[in-house]
Amino acid sequence: KVRYNTVTAIPVDSVASSSSKRRRTEDPKRQIALEVCDIIMAEIRDRFTFNNHLIPAQLFYTEKFFLYKNAFPEILLDCVRRNYPTTNTSKLKSELEVIYSREEFYESAGALAILQLFMNMNLLETFSESVKLLKILCTLPMMTTVESERCFSTLKRVKTFMRNTMGQSRLSSLAMLCV
């Protein structure tokens, strides 16, 4: 006795056998794609889990200076203490309290502008710990160029590995995930 699907009027046994045949032929490609996706996900986790060194940049957000003047951000100072152990945090706190209380610093637009203001006003020695932290924070964006180089080399490996087994849209999607 043959059973029929009520929607398509095709025998149920033939549908099951054709879909299982399709699955058998897609298994190697699917397995490779899953492995590549797992590798990409692991890379993303590794690259973006360590970003604590960027948090202290919030100490120099000029739009928050007024808030910091009233309630000093001790949590951010603790983050500096953990990520930059060579910094004298007690001196840094004193310097930041002065920066937050002086309105001429409110007009600066970001860490680089504050560093340039220190240079122009000849305050490098006076605010030595702030200058040290600002120099570190201003050089951090240079690391992103290395990151992009790494992404392109990963793309090259993915394309070489999967060249014969995937179409352009899947390759583009994997590239976007990688980047």
TrEMBL record:
<protein>
    <recommendedName>
        <fullName>HAT C-terminal dimerisation domain-containing protein</fullName>
    </recommendedName>
</protein>
<feature type="domain" description="HAT C-terminal dimerisation">
    <location>
        <begin position="127"/>
        <end position="179"/>
    </location>
</feature>
<dbReference type="Pfam" id="PF05699">
    <property type="entry name" value="Dimer_Tnp_hAT"/>
</dbReference>
<dbReference type="InterPro" id="IPR052958">
    <property type="entry name" value="IFN-induced_PKR_regulator"/>
</dbReference>
<dbReference type="InterPro" id="IPR008906">
    <property type="entry name" value="HATC_C_dom"/>
</dbReference>
<dbReference type="GO" id="GO:0046983">
    <property type="term" value="F:protein dimerization activity"/>
</dbReference>
